Amino acid sequence: MGEPMLEFNQQPSPDGRRLYLEGFGGDTSNAAIAAARQGASAAYVTGIGRDAAGERFLELWRQEGVDTSGVTIADHSATGIYFVMHSDAGHRFLYYRDGSAASRIGPENVPESLFSNAKIAYFSGISQAISASASDAVFHAMALTRAGGGLIAYDTNYRPRLWPPARAAAVMHAAMACADYALPGIEDVRILTGLTDPDAMLDFYLRLGPLVVVLKMGEAGAWLATPERRVHIARHAVQVVDATGAGDAFCGSFLARVLAGDEPEQAARYANVAAALKCTGYGAVAPIPYAADVVAAMRGTTDHV
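Below the sequence we write its predicted structure tokens.
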């Protein structure tokens, strides 16, 4: 559940012009597609405008096999868009999302049947940062999921332009206290908690209540922790072209493998490879690998999957 955004990703140009490739973004939408490409049954809950961008998303989700019965179509609000610009310092974003259709959803737009029957419901900080009503909708959806016996997963995905650190930390940590799987990024945690040591970060999130914490660390790999043990997962080396959406690919792939019956460490190792493969192409969605690609890559580096 969250906000989709039409993506315009800067491409190399021999004459110095800025050329942009249309694609798709939005962290939770990316994760839903990643989960579907790994074989999971996925649905997405959001709001989109009755516009060309919204139509493109509906077409995308249907092509990817993502259930759209929880998508609200607004007549007077637009679908958000963003631009990705690349430089030697990495990638940066420019967003146009104020008053987007997704930001206008509230608890009344949450489809009870989807969440009460969900095996895992996935949310992020962006799902709550876009508006107070969207934040309330997330907590309502979490309650429905828990009442139906489902599990909850949460990724921080902190965006400083959407809210200040203190407010973000208060809301996100309240959400994390409801979660079974915590999937924060290390840069987010530094801002939200002031902690710098990965072990202390893992301890912090385990104390909030999740039974599994996966600390995503980009090129440094990831740490996975449970109350009983913790393990470092080394990066899967690839030639990085564009890291946009890599964490989303990790989350969707991880949850898909959990649903398939993997233990958390096995699921995290799989997701680590999936996220790396996503970085080999431009855009948040197009390069997300399918299960066969991930399995093939894992067989090239290990004796088991």
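The chain has a mean pLDDT of 95.
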